[in-house]
């Protein structure tokens, strides 16, 4: 496949890609207008696309069976399953006024599905680059991230925040991305693992999760209910209030569950701020306890971990990790572990042994580093 070419008109075709992401810290904060600190990773989803003259999008992907067809006027609800992420991206870009050039899209991916590494955002962002490339149009990265999030929220029906798409669009090698949703700001924060003698391991537990299920939506509704009870637009607006006072004001809502959800969000934002401060001071080895505290909060207050995730964290810590926590939406997926480079193999072996002893299949463990975001993307030329 030839490299994509851009001009004043449509491209003859090409190859575009976008990365998955690991969220270093800041979980379930994005839809509360809070803080998150993801990195894009080297594992990418690639779209090879060529224009077609029959007015139809043809989408195929290894492992997903039959080719899926839809027209440029597709609407939410028309396409379901994995191809809804593709059709939804076409729909969202069309809503922005991007000229839609139907074509054949062949998709391949190194980002495992269901592992909490945002395979959906990688797919959406790669497809968006392909749609733009065929049209010969540019779009700024923030608009690309917003459009692909809308595809997932409205077309697919998954009530996710925008952190995944922002990470896939704005990722940069050697950096983590500080996402401040409430302030609508992004900042690249140095995250140089190699020069610090560290590795970041992703432990894929093999327990799949789904953002579109009821539990994720239930957590979001709890946060919205708490914000309404506190008289604020979002939980980000109470992050500086005395925690005990805030929680006490929620005591009458239920059995204490909503208060625990709020405690996680407020303390998680504080952990992100502390992590960023340490990274700026090049004290990366000191963020380990914050990662572990994040996991404990997600386990006890937000209740989105499952036993296999807790097992992976406990085993990684027992094997010498500096810190570990679940990453992604939870209810399955992956754990990250920050380790000294010389201990990465022994940590992986320790986690595998713990899984086998517990009667589980050994997890897949890979080392990741911050990587560049989606592209190639033609610069936006909108006046």
UniProtKB/TrEMBL annotation:
Gene Ontology CC annotation, any one: cytosol
GO biological process: galactose metabolic process
Residues covered by the GHMP kinase C-terminal domain: 277-356
Entry keyword set: ATP-binding, Carbohydrate metabolism, Galactose metabolism, Kinase, Magnesium, Metal-binding, Nucleotide-binding, Transferase
Domain GHMP kinase N-terminal: 85-171
Signal peptide: none
Galactokinase N-terminal domain segment(s): 5-48
EC number: 2.7.1.6
GO molecular function terms noted in the UniProt entry: ATP binding; galactokinase activity; metal ion binding
Lineage: superkingdom: Bacteria
NCBIfam families, sorted: gal_kin
Family recorded in the similarity comment: Belongs to the GHMP kinase family. GalK subfamily.
The protein's name: Galactokinase
Organism: Naumannella halotolerans
């Amino acid at each position: 496949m030839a490299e994509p070419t851009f001009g004043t008109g449509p491209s003859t075709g090409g190859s575009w890609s976008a990365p998955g992401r690991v969220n270093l810290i800041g979980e379930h904060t994005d839809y509360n207008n809070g803080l998150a600190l993801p990195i894009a990773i080297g594992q990418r989803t690639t779209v090879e696309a060529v224009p077609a003259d029959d007015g139809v999008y043809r989408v195929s992907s290894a492992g997903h069976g039959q080719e899926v067809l839809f027209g440029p006027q597709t609407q939410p609800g028309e396409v379901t399953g994995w191809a809804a992420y593709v059709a939804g991206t076409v729909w969202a870009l069309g809503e922005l006024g991007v000229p839609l050039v139907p074509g054949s899209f062949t998709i391949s991916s190194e980002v495992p599905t269901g592992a909490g590494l945002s395979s959906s955002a990688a797919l959406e962002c790669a497809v968006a680059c392909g749609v733009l490339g065929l049209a010969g149009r540019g779009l700024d990265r923030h608009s690309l991230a917003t459009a692909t999030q809308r595809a997932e929220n409205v077309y697919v029906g998954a009530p996710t925040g925008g952190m995944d798409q922002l990470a896939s669009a704005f990722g940069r090698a050697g950096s983590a991305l500080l996402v401040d949703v409430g302030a609508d700001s992004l900042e690249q924060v140095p995250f140089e693992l190699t020069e610090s003698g560290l590795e970041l391991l992703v432990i894929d537990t093999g327990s799949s999760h789904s953002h579109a299920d009821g539990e994720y939506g239930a957590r979001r509704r709890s946060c919205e209910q708490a914000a309404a009870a506190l008289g604020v637009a979002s939980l980000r607006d109470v992050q500086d209030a005395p925690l005990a006072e805030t929680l006490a004001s929620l005591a009458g809502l239920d059995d204490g569950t909503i208060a625990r959800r709020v405690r996680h969000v407020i303390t998680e934002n504080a952990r992100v701020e502390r992590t960023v401060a340490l990274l700026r001071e090049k004290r990366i080895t000191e963020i380990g306890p914050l990662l572990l505290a994040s996991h404990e909060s997600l386990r006890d207050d937000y209740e989105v971990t499952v036993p296999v995730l807790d097992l992976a964290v406990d085993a990684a810590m027992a094997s010498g990790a500096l810190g570990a926590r679940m990453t992604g939406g939870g209810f399955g997926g992956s754990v990250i572990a920050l380790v000294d480079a010389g201990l990465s193999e022994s940590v992986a072996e320790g986690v595998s042994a713990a899984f086998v002893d517990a009667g589980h299949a050994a997890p897949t463990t890979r080392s990741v580093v911050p990587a560049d975001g989606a592209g190639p993307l033609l610069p936006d030329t909108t006046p």
